Amino acid sequence: MRWVLYPFVALLGLLAIGLAIVALVVSFAWPTLPTLEALTAYQPKIPLRVYTADGELIGEYGEERRAFIRIQDVPPVLKQAILAAEDDRFYEHSGVDFAGILRAASANLVTGGKRQGASTITMQVARNFFLSREKTLSRKLYEILLAFKIEQNLTKDQILEVYVNQIFLGRRAYGFAVASHTYFGKPIRDLNIPEAAMLAGLPKAPSAYNPVVNPKRAALRQHYVLRRMAELGFISEAEHQNALETPLKVVTSAVDLGSSAAYVAEMARQIAYEQYREEAYTRGIKVITTIRKDEQQAAYQALRQGIMEYDRRHGYRGVEGYVDASRTSMDQHEALDEALAETPDMDDLKAAIVTQVDKGTVIAYRYGEIHRISGDGLRFAAPMIGDKAPPNKRIRPGAIIRIVRNQNGWAISQLPEVEGALAAADPRTGAVRALVGGFDFNRNKFNHVTQAWRQPGSSFKPFIYSAAFEKGYGPNSVVEDAPLSFPAGETGSQAWEPKNYDGKYDGPMSVRSAMARSKNMVSIRLLKSIGPRYAQDYITRFGFDAERHPPYLTMALGAGSVTPWQMLRGYSVFANGGYRTEPYVVQEIRDEAGTVLGRVDPPVAGETAERAIDERNAYLMDSIMKDVVRRGTATKALVLKRGDLAGKTGTTNDYLDAWFCGYQPTVVAVAWIGFDQPRKLGRGETGGAAALPMWINYMRKALDGTPETYPTAPAGLIRIQPSGGDEEMIYQENLPAAPPEAPPEPASGPADETPALPALSPATG
To answer: At residue 624, what are phi and psi to the nearest 5 degrees?
Structure first.
């Protein structure tokens, strides 16, 4: 008996010593545990969010993408999936699952490795809030003690609520509410069983089980979670099988409105940061912009379509690069997926890898999908298929290409090199209705609307004509359209012999006709008559910088520098009857509770805005710019079937820039296209050919349901019928060159305690 009793007593002694040591360690460690204020008063860092005027989220800024959700709002299927994946005994244990620890230890002994863990949800909360992820015995002890302390101070639902909101789930997403939008593009309440299982599998290893980067591993993890849900009785066997067979539609790139409004969101972020510095990114501030969801999407699509149509007119340049051809076999999906992850999609321009080129067919791989491209889908890229194509541009196995879906399937496309800008505003207030600063924000964050200084070309002529009207000219004034030449002293640089775009000269013609046909010689003669220095000063009424428009005759053809933002402001003066309004993109800033922290109350044309030019001048300019659309260089706009459209095309020397600036009384819009490093767009790529189509496609949506609107003729003008013509002509009678009127005094009333927001400077863009 002694041989049996002694070992038993020794074992009990060792156990007692071990327990004493543990008790001693706990007695010393427990008082040093951190307080639980971070949990009991849980305040997650809520990022800065930017919205459209109609409530659509377009931007989110902060170190963490996070959205707080109450536990009662978490759908039951997601709760069940989380418990099945992470801690099925969560509502039974007291912070540490000893049964789970024994089960994991047994499994690890059998497999000979450390493949199973036993961390409960409570332990994960303790680790995420208070501890590092180092794997040491002391850290694990603190984790266990903290888990017990958390369970003593919080209810189970409170602990689960913290976990659901705090856990990192990859792609900068913290919490399941954000992850639902990140991976599936939907609110958490709309998750189905397979989607919930996929998300619940992420906490174990967010990068390894990311369904975008590692779809195969993610699917294996999802299947495990679904199996556990069935074993635990959370779902039926029929639901289990249906979930396994349901394909997941994972969001692989940003395709929502945030993609189309990224430039606006960045402008709003800058304004919020100027006001609140780093706090802007953590206190849940909401910025409400002036843009409208449908119009912003229309502007984005219009600009991309215009740029892609230009790009197609100038041919396929070749593939973007190559991967090792040995990696293109169909049994190496993971290697192909990794290569694709290094070439992000640009909205509808998807990256793909060529695996085979056969007679009349290109086979391309994309994240587990095989696409056969032939016929019209190959037409654009045909010059780069075959042995005659340059080796470094040829479409062959291993080539990285861009594909786009059209009505007939998939087609080969390419990323354009040219850039563009499109912006629209309400001319009465300056509220920006849509703004797209470039082809793709993720590729080029330079905002061409506010930051690109370019020559405006003929789109600047209306401001010269307006200056001439102040000096006594009118639409029916006759000016000679004949060749001119000037010595260097008159141009500020070198001798100059300007020409009309078409090289033709039509002799004496009315100013109205000259504007419609964009006659350069008439513009130059008008500027020469009124004096360049007078014109240089006059254009500042529209918001242009005098120093960027030297007082030489070349100003008549738009040789100075402007931004699309300035052109938007300038054309608004003609659209609103002669008042100066300032474009702005942020309407309000609110805190997380919805309290208004700041807002913009803009001056309104005809009420509180400053008058820039005489109302008769504005009316006359509107009249002659309507003729640009009716019978001039912008007749393509007649496709909109409206008579209240006005504007001006612009093409700079050597086709470096193409513009169209135009308006209807309720909306003014500016479109531009050109290269960042100026180079020729190509012969024939005029404002009417390259920029006007973008403007038309946007205006089609912006003016949908808007009745035709015409300004009322002000006093001091008379109408005449020109001989031999069927169109009324308008001229001004004794129109004085008067300075702009002072703005009216604001109405008296109680002071508004809400602070005004700062205007956006084009320099900060």
So the answer is: -75, -25
